[in-house]
Automatic annotation (TrEMBL):
GO terms for cellular component: cytoplasm. This is 3-dehydroquinate synthase. The lineage of its organism: Bacteria, Pseudomonadati, Bacteroidota, Flavobacteriia, Flavobacteriales. Keywords: Cobalt, Lyase, Metal-binding, NAD, Nucleotide-binding, Zinc. Pfam families: DHQ_synthase, DHQS_C. One of its GO terms (molecular function) is metal ion binding. The keyword Lyase applies.
Length: 359
């Protein structure tokens, strides 16, 4: 399954200066009755003012703020924002702009798509993770307690604005979290892209801009071929079957330090690469190179036997499962993913043992 392409035919993802021109044109053409900007407390402080300074609108603009963090990506938060929209007079000609990271764009898209059976919305991702993953592709939704993305819809935003100047406000761990999704795109689509990403110490900020666009193009082209995730779009879940379970487990256990999404996915990718060797004949040499690169970027987390059992149990709730079977995305080679792979628990335990032994 070869999925690497260098150009995109998607028209709704716009970059940097052109993005604001396109947004202002979109607002003027549609004559929205009101505009709502959803932020969390971080993007309210760091991103809202420069964003609003670029917006030209005749309609009233109202700001709705939510609490930051994965723990707030919930139906309870949605309920509060739906109520705020109603109290502020939102109607079906309103526009919602989601200005924030993956939690804001995921949850904001779900809220907009369901409020009054759907109002228009625009995503303005402010983190690397949301630029290359969450804000692009049309997946919107919320968690059920600690279980990731159990409720949601697939419907794209009207526009996605990529303004990489927002990344200047981002802490280093958040940058690394987004980088994990870019690395995943390299593994499933393009070995040359993977190699360039793992040589980050040789890259400039201009290089990073180009790599972000390339990562978005990889995802866009996959989504355009399979918008409802019946086939090739499943490849975007590489590292996520175990990664989401690890993220959920660390989120719900007070004795564990919470992991950022990309940190958990990095572990999941190492485990999935080991499984790829065992199930798909992936190169052991490449597995060790991938593991070394990911450990050098993300370090390692401690996983006890009890942790492993509970993480495996959580995988039963993965939304990619069918007929009670847990489905993995594995690799035959870099750029050649294999979807719907079923793996016995014995091999999953061996993958954990491999991870624990990594230096």
């Amino acid at each position: 399954m070869k999925i690497s392409e260098k150009t995109s035919v998607a028209k709704n993802v716009i970059y940097n200066e052109e993005a604001y021109t396109k947004l202002n044109q979109f607002i003027a053409e549609n004559k929205f009755s009101m505009i709502f900007v959803l932020v969390d407390s971080n993007t309210h402080e760091h991103c809202l003012s420069p964003f609003l300074n670029r917006i030209e609108a005749q309609a009233d603009i109202e700001v709705i703020e939510m609490e930051p963090g994965e723990q707030n990506k919930s139906i309870d938060t949605c309920s509060g924002i739906w109520k705020a929209l109603s109290e502020l007079g939102a109607d079906r000609k309103s526009l919602m702009i989601n200005l924030g990271g993956g939690v804001v764009t995921d949850l904001g898209g779900f809220i907009a798509a369901t409020f009054k059976r759907g109002i228009a919305w625009v995503n303005v991702p402010t983190t690397l993770l949301s630029m290359v993953d969450a804000a692009v592709g049309g997946k919107n939704g919320v968690n059920l307690e600690s279980l990731k993305n159990q409720v949601g819809i697939i419907k794209p935003a009207e526009l996605v604005l990529i303004d990489t100047s927002f990344l200047a406000t981002l802490p280093a761990p958040e940058m690394r979290s987004g980088l994990a999704e870019m690395l995943k795109h390299g593994l499933i689509a393009d070995e040359d892209y993977w190699n360039r990403l793992t040589a980050l110490n040789q890259l400039s900020l201009e290089d990073l801009d180009g790599l972000i666009e390339e990562s978005i193009i990889i995802k866009e082209n996959i989504v355009l071929k399979d918008p409802t995730e019946k086939n090739i779009r499943k490849s975007l879940n590489y590292g996520h079957t175990l990664g989401h379970a690890i993220e959920s487990y660390f989120l719900e256990n007070s004795g564990k330090t919470k992991l950022l999404h990309g940190e958990a996915v990095a572990v999941g990718m190492i485990l999935a690469t080991y499984l790829s060797v065992e199930v798909c004949g992936f190169s052991s040499e490449k597995m060790n190179e991938i593991s070394k690169a990911l450990v050098s970027l993300y370090g390692k987390i401690e996983l006890t036997g009890k942790d492993q059992e509970e993480i495996i149990e959580l995988m039963k709730f993965d939304k990619k499962n069918e007929g009670g079977n847990i489905n993995f995305v594995l690799l035959e080679n870099i750029g050649k993913p294999v979807i719907d792979c079923q793996v016995p628990n014995e091999l999953i335990h061996k993958s954990f043992a491999y991870y624990i032994d990594l230096q």
